[in-house]
Amino acid sequence: MKLKKELGLFDVFALSTGAMFSSGFFLLPGLAAHHTGPSVILAYFLAGILIMPAMFSVAEISTALPRSGGAYFFLDRSLGPLMGTIGGIGTYIALLLKTAFALVGIGAYASIFWDIPIKETAVIFAIIFSILNIFGARKSSGIQKILVIVLLLVLGAFIADGFWNIFSGTNSSIGFNKYNYNPFFTGGLNGLIFTTGFVFVSYLGLTQIASVAEEIKNPERNIPLGMALSLLVTGLIYVFGVFVMVSVIGNEALSQDLSPAATATQQLFSWLPPKTGLYIIVIAALFAFASTGNAGILATSRYPLAMARDKLFSKKFSIISRWGTPVPAILLTTGLIIMFIIILTEEGIVKLASTFQLFIFMAINFSVIVFRNSKIASYDPGYRSPLYPWMQIFGIISSLALMFFMGWGALAFTLITIILAYGWYTFFVRSKVKREGAIYHWFALLGKHQHDELENEFMMILREKGLRQDDPFNQTIVRSQIHFIDNAIFEDLVQDVANSIALELNVDGNSLNEEFLKTTPIDPALVIPEVSLLYAKKPDIIHPVLHIVLCEESIEKPVEIHGVLIKEKIKIFFFLVNDENNPKQQLRMLSSIIDIAERDYFIKDVFSLKTAKEVIEYLLHDKRYITFPLNKNEPSNIFINKKLMEALLPQDVLVVLVDRDGSSFTPKGKTVFLENDVLTIIGEPRSINKLYDQFILSK
Question: What is the DSSP letter of 4?
Fold first, then answer.
């Protein structure tokens, strides 16, 4: 069972942004200032710049392979299951720790005003967010959006009031004091670089969204756009917010302060009743830690799900509940988070989590280079990283440099995690996994290890994503040539069609014939009985060309399976020719043809049609919308001179457009339909199919 696609653009933005605000704003500025002084502002800015290569790389791979598992899935499919295991387990542990400490932050900030136990409170909230995630990503992200909206409003007010007090001159005790910035680099260049790596953890939620890519609607648009908006908003709030803290508190006091946002607030919001501002910022902190904890459980639980699907964990963790969520994976994640809350101390965790994530980002940047050079045709990202490959090379080098500045202790933790993951793979996984990564498709010397199933898996993902908005599929169907024949020899048929297309495209018919004849099935699992897809590529094709041959008596086509030559009886042939410079588009169009051919009763329906026009209308029919004209001599006459509110339509469909005399408009309840109007109706597939049978096939 697949996860439901319930998350839109604002869900992506909210999950990504919510996963970043917590310790990064409310705790880390003071700790970071201890190492570099006022230049902590610059450190936050540089960290936001240095995470951009990883963001672009994650966005590209996520739009090509929108699957749960995030870094694990990317590394497994690019560098192989060993690297996938290391990246998956390591990232899972890092995210567990990050989420655990966000939940501890709830207890810590709440305890400022209420006498409650910190860790027990954190455990209670872990359970609450676990329940929310069990009952659906949509419900969980709904809470997330509320948390993020409130948080952004409060932090925006904090920054605005801070700038007003600093630069307006109305508050003599706060105004801009240049001595707060002297010296700017208290730890020199080394201190700045270390601090940049130290606060890197503040941005880790940005790429965390990749682990729920499978549940995102229109991932090719929503993932890169949501991540970019999230980085922009978060980066501005970090830089401006820390500037306010440095200006209001001063460097010396800031470097010893574990709650700098609360301290700064006590000198701001003077226009509110006493301590009101402090209450507001503490509530904001609670919202921040809550949003990070909620988003953390949502995204982190997808790692055991993805690894279980690939036999790296027990298959129990791949089970999807009737709510469309991975309940066993959520329960495992929540249990480990609770364990970490109870037994772990805080010291050094930020450095440990940052260091391992830097290692993962190095690998992800390299993965983009591997995927691009693997030449796997079905690797088809809807978004491509800019400045490739220099963006990825810069990301690898900068991440490696920051890792070494984080200290030997953090490097040792990363190395130990890698060794443990390697041991798990060697003793528990290797015997169960028979695949290799895309890297074996890159290096010709390792070609004997090329894993053909990887291309098939990518092809299935390509089919699920469907066409792009600029793909001329419908236009190609409309222009297609339909040939009704009684019988033919397969080779003669192919030559005839090749010659016909060659005249249309002004290309050599014999070379086109050869390409058609050597066409092999995309994947044996995609072969449809009595249907054959033959395709070719030619340079400088203005638009794709499609010819469809219908032979009710069937034509014998020779096919070689496992070295044995057999003959298949084919009734419907699709011949598609596309521009060789756009092979990805050809794969998407072939996938869409396959989707059409997999309709229920496809063969029977096609041969019930009498004309080429009817065949084209049938091929254009989509499972979620339908378009048909109102004609007094056809079944659609029941709508003529009727108001929309009087039309007998299923409850789960909607008339969204009426074409009349060359113009289009959206109808209202009192709109009267006229003869020759063309209605466009959307709705649930079952009802759309009924309308199709009633108003199109019945003609």
Answer: P
CA distance 179 to 383: 46
Whether cis (ω within 30° of 0) applies to the bond prior to 183 is yes
Query: CATH code for 466-616?
Result: 3.40.930.10
Task: Answer for the pair 377, 455: CB distance below 8 angstroms, yes or no.
Answer: yes
Q: At what angle do helices 40-50 and 390-405 cross, to 10 degrees?
A: 140
The structure tokens listed for 163 are: 């700038």
Give the side-chain half-sphere CA count within 13 A for 585: 19
Which CATH superfamily hosts domain 621-697? Answer: Regulator of K+ conductance, C-terminal domain (3.30.70.1450)
User: pTM score, two decimals?
Assistant: 0.69
The two tokens of residue 104 are 């501890």
- Where exactly are the structural domains of the chain? 9-430, 466-616, 621-697
Distance between CA atoms of residues 330 and 298, nearest Å: 8
| Cβ-based neighbours of 226, under 8 Å, separated by 6 or more | 9, 10, 11, 12, 13, 16, 209
Tell me which CATH homologous superfamily contains domain 9-430.
Answer: Amino acid/polyamine transporter I (1.20.1740.10)
Distance, in Å, from the CA atom of 598 to the CA atom of 529, rounded to the nearest integer, reads 10
Kindly give the interhelix angle for 71-79 and 52-64, rounded to the nearest 10 degrees. Answer: 70
Answer whether 498's CB lies under 8 Å from 481's CB: no
Minimal CA–CA distance to 98: which of 232, 289, 277, 258? 289
Strand pairing report for 545-561 and 481-484: parallel
Which residue type sits at 3? L
Q: Which residues of the chain have pLDDT under 50?
A: 1, 139, 347, 444-447, 521-526
- Reduced to 3 states (helix: H, G, I; strand: E, B; else coil), residue 279 is helix
Residue 444: predicted pLDDT: 45
- Cβ neighbours for 240, distance < 8 A, ≥ 6 positions apart: 159, 163
> With contact defined as beta carbons under 8 Å apart, do 688 and 620 qualify?
no
Please say whether the beta carbons of 438 and 450 come within 8 A: no
b/e per residue 10-37 (b: at least 16 CB within 10 A): bbbbbbbbbbbbbbbbbbbbbbbbbbbb
What DSSP string describes 271-316?
TSSTTHHHHHHHHHHHHHHHHHHHHHHHHHTHHHHHHHHTTSS-GG
Do 384 and 465 touch, CB atoms closer than 8 A?
no
Neighbours of 390 (CB within 10 A): 10
pLDDT at 549: 95
**Cα–Cα distance measured from residue 159 to residue 162, given in angstroms and rounded to the nearest whole number:** 5
**pLDDT score, position 589:** 87
Closest alpha carbon to 697 in 628, 648, 638 = 628
Tokens coding 297:
């459980």
Are 17 and 205 in contact by the 8 Å Cβ rule? The answer is yes
CA 494/CA 512 separation, integer angstroms: 9
* DSSP per-residue string spanning 134-189: HT-HHHHHHHHHHHHHHHHHHHHHHHHHHHHHHHSSS-TTTS--GGGGSSS-TTHH
> How far is C-alpha 228 from the chain's CA centre?
13
CA max distance for the chain: 95
